[in-house]
Known about the structure:
Elements: H1 5-47, H2 50-56, H3 60-63, H4 68-73, H5 78-119
Amino acid sequence: MRINLDKLQALRAGHERMRADYASRAELVRFGANQVESLRAELVRVSKSDEAIRLLKSNPIELAAYPAEALKLSNVDVHTLRKLIAAQSSLVKARQDADAQAAIVAESAALMERLNTYALRFPEAA
Protein backbone atom coordinates (compact mmCIF):
# COMPACT_ATOMS: atom_id res chain seq x y z
CA MET A 1 0.00 0.00 0.00
CA ARG A 2 1.21 3.52 -0.80
CA ILE A 3 0.24 6.97 0.32
CA ASN A 4 -0.49 9.76 -2.16
CA LEU A 5 2.13 12.32 -1.15
CA ASP A 6 0.81 14.99 -3.50
CA LYS A 7 -2.63 14.75 -1.95
CA LEU A 8 -1.18 14.82 1.57
CA GLN A 9 0.85 17.94 0.77
CA ALA A 10 -2.22 19.59 -0.80
CA LEU A 11 -4.23 18.87 2.35
CA ARG A 12 -1.46 20.23 4.56
CA ALA A 13 -1.26 23.39 2.42
CA GLY A 14 -5.03 23.80 2.58
CA HIS A 15 -4.96 23.51 6.35
CA GLU A 16 -2.22 26.16 6.57
CA ARG A 17 -4.32 28.51 4.38
CA MET A 18 -7.27 28.00 6.75
CA ARG A 19 -5.05 28.82 9.74
CA ALA A 20 -3.76 31.95 8.01
CA ASP A 21 -7.33 32.99 7.18
CA TYR A 22 -8.32 32.54 10.81
CA ALA A 23 -5.32 34.60 11.94
CA SER A 24 -6.34 37.47 9.66
CA ARG A 25 -9.92 37.31 10.91
CA ALA A 26 -8.74 37.31 14.52
CA GLU A 27 -6.63 40.38 13.73
CA LEU A 28 -9.73 42.11 12.34
CA VAL A 29 -11.51 41.36 15.62
CA ARG A 30 -8.65 42.88 17.62
CA PHE A 31 -8.61 45.95 15.38
CA GLY A 32 -12.39 46.32 15.63
CA ALA A 33 -12.35 46.01 19.42
CA ASN A 34 -9.66 48.68 19.64
CA GLN A 35 -11.65 50.95 17.34
CA VAL A 36 -14.82 50.52 19.40
CA GLU A 37 -12.97 51.29 22.63
CA SER A 38 -11.28 54.31 21.07
CA LEU A 39 -14.57 55.74 19.84
CA ARG A 40 -16.25 55.04 23.18
CA ALA A 41 -13.40 56.80 25.02
CA GLU A 42 -13.64 59.77 22.66
CA LEU A 43 -17.36 60.08 23.32
CA VAL A 44 -16.83 59.91 27.08
CA ARG A 45 -14.00 62.46 26.93
CA VAL A 46 -16.03 64.93 24.87
CA SER A 47 -19.36 64.53 26.67
CA LYS A 48 -18.04 64.92 30.24
CA SER A 49 -21.49 64.55 31.78
CA ASP A 50 -22.45 61.75 34.15
CA GLU A 51 -25.60 61.06 32.16
CA ALA A 52 -23.65 60.74 28.91
CA ILE A 53 -21.09 58.47 30.53
CA ARG A 54 -23.88 56.26 31.87
CA LEU A 55 -25.46 56.16 28.42
CA LEU A 56 -22.18 55.36 26.72
CA LYS A 57 -21.59 52.35 28.97
CA SER A 58 -24.67 50.74 27.51
CA ASN A 59 -24.73 48.89 24.22
CA PRO A 60 -24.13 51.32 21.32
CA ILE A 61 -27.00 49.73 19.38
CA GLU A 62 -29.35 50.58 22.27
CA LEU A 63 -28.02 54.14 22.19
CA ALA A 64 -29.25 54.50 18.63
CA ALA A 65 -32.81 54.26 19.96
CA TYR A 66 -32.34 57.41 22.08
CA PRO A 67 -33.74 60.55 20.48
CA ALA A 68 -31.09 62.82 18.96
CA GLU A 69 -32.22 65.71 21.15
CA ALA A 70 -31.75 63.68 24.34
CA LEU A 71 -28.26 62.75 23.19
CA LYS A 72 -27.43 66.37 22.40
CA LEU A 73 -28.64 67.45 25.83
CA SER A 74 -26.24 64.89 27.31
CA ASN A 75 -23.43 66.29 25.12
CA VAL A 76 -23.14 63.09 23.09
CA ASP A 77 -21.77 63.75 19.61
CA VAL A 78 -24.26 62.03 17.30
CA HIS A 79 -21.76 61.71 14.43
CA THR A 80 -19.20 59.91 16.61
CA LEU A 81 -21.99 57.81 18.07
CA ARG A 82 -22.97 56.69 14.56
CA LYS A 83 -19.34 55.73 13.91
CA LEU A 84 -19.34 53.80 17.20
CA ILE A 85 -22.52 51.94 16.25
CA ALA A 86 -21.08 51.06 12.83
CA ALA A 87 -17.82 49.90 14.41
CA GLN A 88 -19.73 47.80 16.97
CA SER A 89 -21.80 46.17 14.22
CA SER A 90 -18.65 45.42 12.23
CA LEU A 91 -17.03 43.97 15.34
CA VAL A 92 -19.98 41.64 15.96
CA LYS A 93 -19.79 40.40 12.35
CA ALA A 94 -16.00 40.00 12.54
CA ARG A 95 -16.33 37.96 15.76
CA GLN A 96 -18.93 35.71 14.14
CA ASP A 97 -16.69 35.17 11.12
CA ALA A 98 -13.64 34.48 13.30
CA ASP A 99 -15.60 32.04 15.47
CA ALA A 100 -16.88 30.19 12.39
CA GLN A 101 -13.36 30.01 10.95
CA ALA A 102 -12.00 28.81 14.31
CA ALA A 103 -14.45 25.89 14.22
CA ILE A 104 -13.36 25.00 10.69
CA VAL A 105 -9.69 25.18 11.66
CA ALA A 106 -10.31 22.97 14.70
CA GLU A 107 -11.97 20.31 12.53
CA SER A 108 -9.19 20.58 9.98
CA ALA A 109 -6.52 20.29 12.69
CA ALA A 110 -8.12 17.10 14.02
CA LEU A 111 -8.25 15.65 10.51
CA MET A 112 -4.64 16.66 9.79
CA GLU A 113 -3.51 15.07 13.05
CA ARG A 114 -5.14 11.79 12.05
CA LEU A 115 -3.72 11.98 8.53
CA ASN A 116 -0.22 12.76 9.76
CA THR A 117 -0.39 9.87 12.25
CA TYR A 118 -1.50 7.57 9.44
CA ALA A 119 1.20 8.92 7.09
CA LEU A 120 3.91 8.00 9.61
CA ARG A 121 3.32 4.38 8.63
CA PHE A 122 4.88 5.15 5.27
CA PRO A 123 8.57 6.07 5.16
CA GLU A 124 8.15 8.18 2.01
CA ALA A 125 5.68 10.50 3.84
CA ALA A 126 8.04 11.50 6.61
